[in-house]
Write a structure and sequence with these properties.
GO terms for molecular function: DNA-binding transcription factor activity; transcription cis-regulatory region binding. This is HTH tetR-type domain-containing protein. Pfam families: TetR_C_41 (PF21351), TetR_N (PF00440). By secondary structure, this protein is mostly helical. The chain has one domain: Tetracycline Repressor, domain 2 (Orthogonal Bundle). It has ten helices and three strands, in the order βββαααααααααα. Strands 1-2-3 form a three-stranded antiparallel beta sheet, with helices on one face. 30% of the residues are buried.
Length: 218
C-alpha cells in the first residue's frame, strides 16, 4: 500500500521499499534492501529487548550486514530507532485510514478510526517502541512531530471535516485532536496490566465517545 510521509513528502510502500518515481538501478535496490533489512532487525530488537539493551552489532548480524554497512545507512542507534518509529507510524496511519474508509459517513469514520488506532496501540511492537520508549529516547519534541505527521494527522483531518460539515461545534480542532490522541495513548499504557482489559477498554472508549459527543451537533 502506497503511503506518503507527511514530514518529508517521501512515498513509501508500507512494508516495502521507498518509492522514487523512477525505475531503480540494481545498486539502488540493493542499498534500499539493506536499509530495510536493518530497519526490520532494529524493530525486532527494540520490540523484544528495548532500546537500551539492543546493540548495533547484534542488529547488524540479524540483518546479515556488516557494522560498516550499518553506519552507512544510520548515524547511530538513535537514528535507527527514529527511523523505526517513523516506519511504525506510517504503517499505523495506513491501517487506521484503511479501517476508517470502510465507513461512509464521516462521523462513523471517526469512530472506526479511533477503534483502529487503539488496536494499533495495543500491537506489541508499536506499544513498546512508539508508546513506551519513543518519548524518552527521541525527546518529546521529535516524538510529537512524528505523531502529528501521521496518526494524529488523520484524526485532526477527520475532526476538521466534521466541523466544516457543521457536525462538530468546537473552535480549536488541534487541541481536541491532541486530547483524544492522549487519551488513546494512555489507554494503551493501562490495558496490558489491567485485570479486565475488555471492560477497561469499553469504559475508555465510552469516555472518548462522550467527550466527542459533547461537541456533536444535530
Amino acid at each position: 500500500m502506497l503511503y506518503v510521509d507527511r514530514l518529508t513528502g517521501v512515498k513509501w510502500y508500507v512494508g516495502g521499499m521507498q518509492e522514487t518515481g523512477r525505475e531503480r538501478t540494481r545498486r539502488e535496490e540493493y542499498t534500499e534492501a539493506t536499509r530495510q533489512a536493518l530497519l526490520a532487525a532494529g524493530q525486532n530488537a527494540f520490540a523484544s529487548e528495548g532500546y537500551q539493551a539492543a546493540g548495533i552489532e547484534a542488529i547488524s548480524r540479524a540483518a546479515r550486514v556488516t557494522r560498516g554497512a550499518f553506519y552507512h545507512h544510520f548515524e547511530d542507534k538513535k537514528a535507527l530507532f527514529d527511523a523505526a518509529v517513523v516506519a511504525l507510524q506510517i504503517e499505523a496511519a495506513a491501517k487506521i485510514e484503511a479501517r476508517a474508509k470502510t465507513q461512509r459517513k464521516v462521523w462513523d469514520r471517526l469512530t472506526e478510526g479511533i477503534e483502529a488506532y487503539l488496536d494499533v496501540c495495543l500491537e506489541p511492537a508499536y506499544a513498546r517502541i512508539v508508546i513506551q520508549e519513543a518519548p524518552a529516547v527521541l525527546g518529546n519534541a521529535r516524538y510529537r512531530e512524528i505523531e502529528e505527521a501521521h496518526p494524529m494527522a488523520l484524526l485532526t483531518a477527520t475532526l476538521a471535516a466534521l466541523k466544516r460539515q457543521g457536525e462538530l461545534d468546537f473552535e480549536d480542532i488541534e487541541l481536541l485532536s491532541r486530547m483524544v490522541d492522549a487519551m488513546i495513548c494512555e489507554m494503551a499504557l493501562l490495558l496490558p496490566g489491567a485485570e479486565n482489559p475488555k471492560r477497561l477498554r469499553a469504559r475508555g472508549q465510552k469516555i472518548i465517545g462522550n467527550l466527542l459527543g459533547t461537541f456533536r451537533t444535530g
